[in-house]
Amino acid sequence: MHCAECKGKGLCGLEKCPILSRFYAKAPFSFKKEYHGNSPSVFIGSYGYPDVVTGPLLIDDNDHPPDWINGQYSIEDIVAVRSRTIRGRSKEIGHITELQEIALSSKPLPVDVDFTKPISFRLTFDGIMAPVGLSGELKDLQVLENAHVARAVDKVTSDTDLKAVEALDYLYGSGIDTYKMTSLLSSGLLGKRRRVTPTRWAITAVDDMISKKLAVSIRKNSSTDTISIFSHELYGNLIIFILIPGEWKFEMIEIWSRNSLWNGENDFIVADRERGIKKNYSPITGAYYSARLAVTEYLSPRHISGTVIVIRRISSEYWAPLGTWVIREVSRLAMKKMPVTCENVKQAEEIVSSILGYDDWRIHSQYLSDLTRQKKITDFIGF
Amino acid sequence: MMLKAIIDADILRETIEAIAALVSECRLHIENDGFSMLAVDTANVAMVKAVLQKTAFQSYEAESCEIGVDITKLRNILGTPGKTDQVKIELDETRHKLELSFMGYKYSVALLDTNTIRKEPNEPNIELPAKIIVPGMELNNAIKASMLISDKIALGVDTQEKNGPFFFMHADGDTDQINKTFGPTEVQFVNPVDSRSLFSIDYLKDMGKIFGKSASVEVHLGTDHPVKFIFDMSNGNAHFIYLLAPRIEAD
Hints:
The complex is a heterodimer of chains A (about 375) and B (about 250). By secondary structure, chain A is α+β, with helices and mostly antiparallel strands. Chain A has 13 helices and 15 strands. Chain A has three domains: about 15-145, CATH 2.40.50; about 150-220, no CATH class; about 220-380, Ribosomal Protein S5, domain 2. Chain A has helices at about 5, 20, 65-70, 75-85, 95-105, 150-155, 165-175, 180-185, 200-220, 285-300, 325-335, 345-355, 365-375, and strands spanning about 35-40, 40-45, 55-60, 85-90, 110-115, 120-125, 130-145, 220-225, 225-235, 235-245, 250-255, 270-275, 305, 305-315, 340. In chain A, a hairpin with a 2-residue loop joins strand 9 and strand 10. The longest helix of chain A is centred in the middle third of the chain and has 20 residues, at about 200-220. Chain A is globular. Chain B is of the alpha+beta class. Chain B has two domains: about 5-40 and about 55-115, Proliferating Cell Nuclear Antigen (Box); about 130-245, Proliferating Cell Nuclear Antigen (Box), CATH 3.70.10. In chain B, about 15% of the residues lie in helices and about 45% in strands. The longest helix of chain B has 12 residues, at about 10-20.
């Protein structure tokens, strides 16, 4: 198992991920025993599941990654915001009513919090979730205002006969964003058999369920008739999409450049793909599902299908893992831009190679090989 | 447009599943001697032809017409009835619905506008010199075994061996290989001619699931040419042809 495949899950057996440990930075902060301010969302840990640590995220700022991008935050700015964020902790799923109130609300709720001891600083990073700096064990948590609940959110959370996947589909159709859905799912407010779900898992579950649902309808659409290339780069993450006429197929190639976050002296490349419905968990982990979400969000409203090949190249500029929202948002930004259209697959390959600066990626794409090597039945029979 | 028919659920289900292996919708021709369809998959790589004869039905009464059918939806609906349940099929011309009744349920399924479905290809008359007959299950097992090693598989006939002709399947993975040969005792060589073509396992595995249920499959092969699988199901009342385009061997 290579570090780029595990991304800090601890599969090597070491107590702490040595790469993530580099970021357990210390910073000056006044370590208080109480907090009076806003709580924009909740956090559910995954360690020791099902006996997980739960609690509110506490900061007078938003917990909404698209706002960080709109506000042109740098990686340093994001890490700084998150360093100031306090993660309240309580064991045995304590204060769940208050947490669900925070998760339900469409705007941050004012809270009063008492901690058992002064809060401590330990900036923790994770490949899937955004980092968090401070944490403290909860003694008391009081929510000072009623939640502002969107109508669609109220409808699905109060219907205990609605499956989680159907609830998410409804929320998506009502324009509720995926970050809100993650909060609702993780705090146990969706589905028939409701339970608190680690934030890390809920993020990928939302990306997976929404994009799977969109893919089912995309498969029925007629194919795009042009080859288009979309690309965008932010926070050292270069994301390129190649959309090719054909049936719905999705392939992702992730390239960890030399000396980038999870990697050593050589480039490390992981690839994964699906035709039809994916069954196993992707070796690319959460990033695969975040990129697939952005692609299906592009194809579905345009009523087209196609074969999509995504290349994500991570450079050493991405010095701290910020979470899979980076892939989701950079992909969405790429799909918003005017694509470059190509005459044929060969030209598309050349353009992608020129953006990346090399052509080593090409052999990892099975679907591109299929396109150039697979003959058409129409070459042999007439129409 | 008129159709009134009764058929065993199992026979209809097998036919729809064989079509669904390649396409999600098709134009279905209803004739006075049964149903037929011909379609190419969205990627233009494979073709399916299906004929369900009048003799497959308990009762059958129809006027010639062409309807657009959502095959995926039909397959899902036909998941419900048991093997021996009878399905009553009727066409509601005015409402453009196909009505399926079984076990007290009555489904009215909207027909698709045939203009929105891809044009049918010409009836294929491609010449493939080698012709052999293989038990369906054996063929499917060999495809499943190759899936563990590679995503493509070579199929061919070798007549140069001194122990008689062989039908072979060969898959090359990045590091591993698998070989399976069938001799004259296992398969019937109707036309043993040297041939070899490479195919995508993605397609073969979907086709294999279907013809694996057939006692014998006629395989037609050439060199760098498509493969044709011809087989029957439902006691010879349903006929199928799959045609799959080859891949070019890696250079």
